[in-house]
Amino acid sequence: MTTTLITGANKGLGFETARRLVAAGHTVYVGARDAERGRRAAEQLGARFVQLDVTDDTSVEAAAKAIEADGGLDVLINNAGIETRGEGNSVPTAATVTADQMRNTFETNVFGVVRVTHAFLPLLQRSAAPVVVNISSGLGSLTHLSDPDHPAHFYPGVAYPTSKTAVNMLTVQYAKAFPDIRINAVEPGFTKTDLNGNTGTQTVEEGAEIIVRMAQIGADGPTGGYFDINGSLPW
């Protein structure tokens, strides 16, 4: 039996990924900050709930101990993420972004990934086929955002893309350091979720496809890569 933890899994892509992996036979832990929402989601899914706030050391350490006591972990999906908004619900641009907005975004999207990965590495290293999937974004691609002919080039925000570029670098460095763990970053695509005010152009079912696929790779699967549903992406 494969045991999987998904952070931020009480809604959106995390919830749909959990649903699909439960159906595939995984024992899934729904990680959520809000205990009531997390328990409700876990009940709906036939999953287990673990309270987990990726910005809080105590919460993450307690979750790691609880999952270890239940038998360990095989797959970690770092899904929890935010997009900090400024006045009028606008994304902070190069002209308006503040250090506090950057710090707030990084606390969840980058430091949260480090905090959770660090806490669960000992459990993953005991697994026969450990996997880590980091939810990145196409907006994290320096190649695409610096290409005037690419659709992502128009995006003016600073904090969110920068955080996802950092997630990509974390993915590369962790993958090199732990060659026995399959560690990859994925781009779900522009999906209708609360993160973007449900303005996305695809469904959560479509967005979750690459996450589910990479969560189920075997020991001979890729590592240290950056993928969307069509294959590798340029950094």
Descriptive notes:
With 235 residues, this protein is an alpha/beta fold. It has a single domain, classed as 3-Layer(aba) Sandwich (Rossmann fold). 41% of the residues lie in helices and 14% in strands. The chain is globular and about 50 Å long.
Give the helices and strands, then pairings.
Elements: E1 3-7, H1 12-23, E2 27-32, H2 35-45, E3 48-51, H3 57-69, E4 75-78, H4 99-109, H5 111-124, E5 131-135, H6 142-145, H7 159-177, E6 182-186, H8 204-215, E7 226-228, E8 231-232
Indicate the overall shape: globular
Whole-number count of domains: 1
Low-confidence stretches at least 5 residues in length (pLDDT < 50)? none
Helix content: 40-55%
- State Rg: 17 Å
* Mean pLDDT across every amino acid position: 94
Task: Describe this structure in a few short sentences.
Helix content is 41%, strand content 14%. The chain has 235 residues and is of the alpha/beta class.
Keyword list:
eight-stranded mixed β-sheet, Rossmann fold, alpha/beta, 235 residues, single chain
